[in-house]
Design a protein that fits this description.
This protein has helices at 5-12, 22-28, 56-64, 68-77, 81-84, 213-218, 222-228, 240-244, 256-262, and strands at 99-101, 104-109, 123-129, 133-139, 145-151, 154-160, 169-174, 178-181, 186-190, 197-203, 211-212, 252-253. By secondary structure, the protein is an alpha+beta fold. The protein binds 2-acetamido-2-deoxy-beta-D-glucopyranose (4 copies). One 2-acetamido-2-deoxy-beta-D-glucopyranose binds at residues 40, 42-43. One 2-acetamido-2-deoxy-beta-D-glucopyranose (NAG) binds next to helix 8.
Length: 276
């Protein structure tokens, strides 16, 4: 799952506490479309309501609470338990906090937007993949993840862990089946079907982090990128900085063969993984 910490922290009004390099911040912020790209988005129900926002003061108090009892008492004092003890992972159709791309959207509840998670070692996301949608290759810096398919037909998945265990592990999960993505592994999920798929991602850290592999590889200096790849001829006339600007935002479109089979258009201009 991709989420922009910068976006979240801005929304929560505690930017001052989070140092960042403005240039990097701009480059890393996904360029979300104004409206969503989600096929068959979930409908609002009479329990749907916006998630609350928190002041910096509230977040600081939650962080400083010494025991779970203090923390929960404090959070309960913020207001309605249906706001502060509940998190709505429904994408609002136009903007999700964890992924917005031509392949679908993702919503993540983690400690910065759901502070009751503080100290729990847990976060959770829901991924809404369009037909042929791909949760592009990424790692979670601080969490192991279990991906469970809760709607749709199937999900193809893969991960590659580390030296000594560096052959990919592939699984194809069916409805209500889950699979593991070990902490730090490069992994992906692909909905190779003509219908949408929804998966729940359980994460073993309240601040799981995400690093998109292609984006964070190609952001490095041209000669370093070239050298990492042994100066391949296919990069001879390629400016890798410019190339990076063409990377798709998560969730990306998946394999072209799927689009062909399903009779839907693969949009060649899906740049948006970064702000140009
Ligand atoms: C989404 O936004 C784009 C550009 O802002 C617009 O061209 C398009 O019609 C919009 N689509 C929907 C479904 O509103
Ligand atoms: C939302 O409601 C519409 C109209 O009833 C329905 O066609 C659609 O399938 C619903 N979406 C989901 C995800 O259930
Ligand atoms: C919400 O809708 C369901 C039916 O969809 C109904 O049974 C329930 O009473 C409603 N709750 C409220 C608070 O309106
Ligand atoms: C690549 O293009 C960017 C402008 O898009 C430029 O700033 C940079 O110097 C170029 N890199 C190389 C190695 O030519």
């Amino acid at each position: 799952m991709l989420f922009s910490l910068a976006t979240l922290t801005t929304g929560l009004g505690f930017t001052a506490a989070v140092p960042f390099v403005p240039e990097l911040y701009r480059r890393q912020e996904p360029n979300y479309p104004d409206n969503g790209t989600l096929v068959n988005p979930p409908n609002a129900t009479n329990l749907t309501r916006p998630n609350p926002t928190y002041t910096q003061e509230q977040l600081t108090q939650v962080k400083l609470a010494y025991t779970a009892v203090e923390r929960l008492t404090l959070i309960k004092s913020f207001g309605n338990t249906d706001d502060y003890f509940k998190f709505d992972l429904t994408p609002d159709g136009s903007h999700s906090n964890a992924a917005n791309g031509l392949g679908g959207q993702g919503y993540l509840a983690e400690v910065a937007n759901f502070p009751v998670l503080m100290g729990t070692g847990l976060s959770v996301a829901i991924g809404y993949l369009n037909p042929c949608g791909l949760d592009s290759i990424h790692i979670h810096n601080r969490a192991t993840e279990i991906v469970t398919l809760v709607s749709g037909k199937s999900l193809k998945t893969g991960f590659v862990l580390e030296d000594g265990f560096d052959l990919p592990v592939y699984t194809e999960i069916g409805l209500y089946q889950g699979t593991i993505r070990p902490q730090g592994s490069l992994h992906w999920e692909f909905n190779d079907n003509c219908e949408p798929a929804v998966f729940v991602a359980s994460l073993s850290n309240e601040d799981p982090g995400v690093s998109r592999t292609a984006q964070n590889f190609f952001i490095n200096p041209q000669d370093i990128v070239d050298a990492n790849l042994a100066y391949p001829s296919w990069l001879d006339n390629v400016n890798t900085t410019d190339y990076r600007a063409q990377l798709p935002a998560a969730f990306a479109q998946g394999a072209k063969a799927c689009y062909q089979r399903c009779g839907i258009t693969y949009d060649t201009n899906q740049a948006g993984g970064i702000t140009k």
